[in-house]
Every structure is written in structure tokens, then in C-alpha cells.
Amino acid sequence: MPLALLALALVAFGIGTTEFATMGLLPQIADGVGVSVPHAGNLVSAYALGVVVGAPILTGIGARIAHKRLLLLLSAMFVIGNVASALAPNFGLLFAARFLAGLPHGALFGVGAVVASRLVAPERAGRAVSRMFLGLTIANIVGVPAGTALGQHLGWRYAYCGVAVIGLVALAALAAFVPHQPRGSQSGIRHELRAMGNRQVALGLATAVVGFGGFFAVYSYLVPILTHVTGLADSSTTWVLALYGIGMTLGTLIAGPLSDRALRPTLYGGLFLLGSTLVAFYFTVHSTVPALVTLVFMGAMGALVTTPVQMLLMAKAKNAPTMAAASNHSAFNLANAGGAWLGGLAISAGWGWASPALVGAALAAAGLGLALLAGLTDRDTGSSALVTSSSTPTPSKAVRDADTQDVQTRSA
């Protein structure tokens, strides 16, 4: 099972690298395709749009496909999208290629989270999902700086080639290590959409959009905040972003066990601490050491929110969790767009470069309000129970049954 989780984490590592490395290579890409840097920034939006559109559509199309096969198909699409990005001769085709690369993002995470939760006993599902998310956070420490350095020294196209290679390795690992998980008898697009109609699922997605928007309100402007307010040199921003990634990794490591122990309290606490840390950052950003310490906590608290939101959506969708799990990543990308927009409005209004921290704190507080509303209106007393299968036993139970039958056979 650890090898299967490692394969899923490798997929997440490739996704995180391709999503964020583009931001560090915008000047090189702009020169390469003959557009301005702001115009090249639309490539980030193209990828995000692909995530928002692709998560529900591809999950719906693959509703009856066995999970392992669907993971392989989505990973192949991811590789094709990044190869097309590397080969795109002009901005228009590069825009289309980035949209294509983003299409499988949400579905990969959604299907991967369901697969990960079924690889272990139900009481350890949160830890398994968080292990997959570790690939995304480690990408911010290793993958994004490495991809940025590769693109700056050899050319931006090589960065996308490197991501495609990661995707191929992940594809091989998925084929080798992830076990077959048959779909339940009730699987299908109608079944998944019916689960999406649950009010708790809708509130969970709204919590992700609003609450996690607070994280992106600051993350989107982190580099100019640190250079204009804290006074760091441009050359220092790469390792500072890696430091931020370390905080996210620490938050992900503790999110899994806490989600397994107390799902909703972990979500409440994560949103409260995220908002509090953002307020603290507004005051510490003027001094280097306090700003960097707060930065690590901010990354940790942001990551602490992701796993419980994912697990809660899967629990509320009952035995059709794949669409809800995938749509969560559409919600995160909407949070990215909305948080960045609101943070930019605060800066444009003349409130100062540090003002996105207060905007983010307000969004985190609003997200906490939505999460509390969902908890208060939840009439399902088993609200934290994750249904890991619709009509087949969980892999852990299946293994136990097989072992019991084998012992009985030998005794006979």
C-alpha cells in the first residue's frame, strides 16, 4: 500500500510542479512567444479554467470506468498537455495546451483521493489522503524551484518537458502499484450527480471557495509583499517560497491524523488559525524574521484545511464520493481566482501591499462561518463517517476476509 500511495503522491507532485512553475517563468515564456508578461499571465488562468471545467466533466465521463484505468487515462492526458505546452509554437496554441494540461487536474485528485482512502482501513483514510496531498506540497519545495531553474537556464520549454517526464514516471508507478478497484453496482453519472445535490456537499464546496480564498489572497501577492514591505531581495524569493512549501508540508502531515480523529473540529480549527495567522502576518510583515516565521505558520494552516474539506465532501457524498472529491479542486481554483482578485482590489484601492492579509483573514472568517453553518444544519449524526465503497468491501476488509477463508481452507 505505501507504494500505491507513493505513486499517487508522485502524480500530485507533477500537478503541483506544472501548476506553479509557470508563474516563475512568465518573463521567459513572454519572450519566447512574443507577448507581454501580463498577457503571458493569462496562461495561469488558462490552466485554472481547465481545472474548473475538467473536474466535473471528466469525472462524469469516467463515472463507470474502473478507478485504476481512469487514473491511467487522466495521467496520459496530463502528459499530453505538458508535451503540447513544450512544443507550442505560438501563444494561442500554448494557451490551449495549458487549458488541456489543467483538464485532468481535479479529476486526478478526486479519483486519487477516493483510491487512497480505499487502500487502508476506514479509520486511517484521512492519513492516506493527506499522503497523496504531500506530493503537492513537496512540489512547492522541490519541483517548482527546480522547474523554474531549469526553465531559466535551458529555456521554458524544458520545464514542461521535465513535468512530462514526471508524468510518465507517475503513469508507470500507477500501473505497477495501484490495485484494481471495481466500481460499485450503482456507479454512473446520475448517481454521482445525485450525491452532488446534497446540501452538505454544496456547503462544503462553498467553504472551500470562500475559506481557502483567504489563503490565495496572500499567496498570489507574496513575492511583491516580501520585496516591497519586508525588504527582501528578488533573489531571495525562491528559497522563501520553498520555506512556505515546508510549512504546507508540515500542515499536511498533521492534517491526516487530526481529520481521522475529529473531522469537523479540524476544519473549524484550521480556518480559525488560518485567519488568525493572516492577521498576525499583517503586523509581522515589516520585520524579516517574524515575517518568515509567520509565513511558515500560514502555509501550515492553509494546508491544514485541505484534507478535512476533502474528507468531509467524500463523507457527505456517501457512496458516490468521486465527483464531490474532484469538484473540491474546482472550488480551490475558484478560491485562487477570487482570492487573488479581492487581494488585488485592496492593493489597487491604496490600502498597501500588506492589505491582502486582512482580506484573506476576512475570507477565512467567512469560510469558518459557512463551515459552522454546515455543522449546525447537519442532521446526519454519522457526519464524520467516510463511506469508502458502495457495494464492495474496502480493500482492508477484503484482505482480512481472504485471509480468514485461506485459514479455513487449510484447516479443512
UniProtKB/TrEMBL annotation:
Provide the primary localization: membrane
Keywords on record: Cell membrane, Membrane, Transmembrane, Transmembrane helix
Q: Transmembrane ranges? A: 44-63, 70-97, 103-121, 133-151, 157-180, 201-222, 237-255, 267-285, 291-313, 334-351, 357-376
Write out the coiled-coil annotation as residue ranges.
none
Does the entry feature the keyword Transmembrane, yes or no? yes
Q: What compartments host this protein?
A: Cell membrane
Enumerate the spans annotated as Major facilitator superfamily (MFS) profile domain.
Answer: 2-379
**Region named Disordered:** 384-412
Q: Know the name of this protein?
A: MFS transporter
